[in-house]
Design goal:
Elements lengths: L12 H17 L4 H8 L13 H12 L3 H12 L11 H6 L5 H12 L15 H13 L8 H12 L3 H9 L6 H21 L3
Helix pairs in contact: 1-7, 2-3, 3-10, 7-8, 9-10
Length: about 200
């Protein structure tokens, strides 16, 4: 599939945020294919969202992506998150919040999604607490047309309850893994982006 990269100052900040959440969701859900890696070849190297704090981790991610082929990305993804049995690194919030998969944090998340009128589609095989699924929810809460759901209040609530508490632990686990290369760069950028989001939401209080 084709991938639109978030623009910088030329694009409305909220649209850029939504597109960035969408890109991160795609990269955490599965290894980038040849088409997506080709898009990195022409991606801007300026930070895709406001804040100089993102500049260097984004540049690092683009640089690694430009030096990675699809086969290597697929092999790395499988080594870190796939395989038979227990993966090297879990991508599910319940694991970090309670120590178990499909546990109470997932039940709470499903309850909160139900209140928003959101549910997992039949084509989505991962549970809702997979980081890619949560990033897709955040993208919708920014870009959705239903202002009763897609608004800053709901974004802040979803982020502070279901993303922020465990995302740094996931990023640290990837960064510390000896087989991580592309995903180490993605983890570093993801953590930087989430830090910027957390600071922005804190300003709303």
């Amino acid at each position: 599939m084709s991938q639109t990269f978030p623009a910088t100052s030329a694009l409305d900040e909220e649209v850029a945020r939504a597109e960035l959440y969408g890109l991160l969701a795609r990269l955490w859900y599965a290894a980038p294919d040849a088409e997506l890696l080709a898009a990195f070849q022409v991606a801007p190297t300026e930070a895709p969202a406001a804040g100089a704090f993102l500049e260097e981790p984004w540049r690092q991610l683009v640089g690694i992506a430009r030096d990675t082929d699809a086969a290597a990305a697929h092999e790395e993804y499988d080594a870190l998150f796939g395989g038979i049995g227990k993966p090297e690194v879990f991508l599910f919030g319940s694991h970090y919040l309670s120590g178990f998969l499909n546990d109470k944090p997932l039940v709470q998340l499903r309850h909160d999604l139900d209140k928003l009128g959101l549910a997992r589609t039949e084509t989505t095989y991962e549970t809702e607490d997979h980081i890619a699924c949560l990033f897709e929810v955040m993208r919708y809460l920014i870009a959705g047309e239903d202002v009763a759901v897609a608004n800053l209040t709901q974004q802040q609530a979803m982020f502070s309850k279901h993303v922020q508490p465990w995302l740094p632990a996931l990023c640290d686990a990837v960064l510390q893994h000896p087989k991580a290369r592309f995903y180490a760069a993605l983890a570093a950028f993801t953590r930087a982006f989430v830090d910027v989001e957390a600071q922005a939401f804190d300003m709303l209080d």
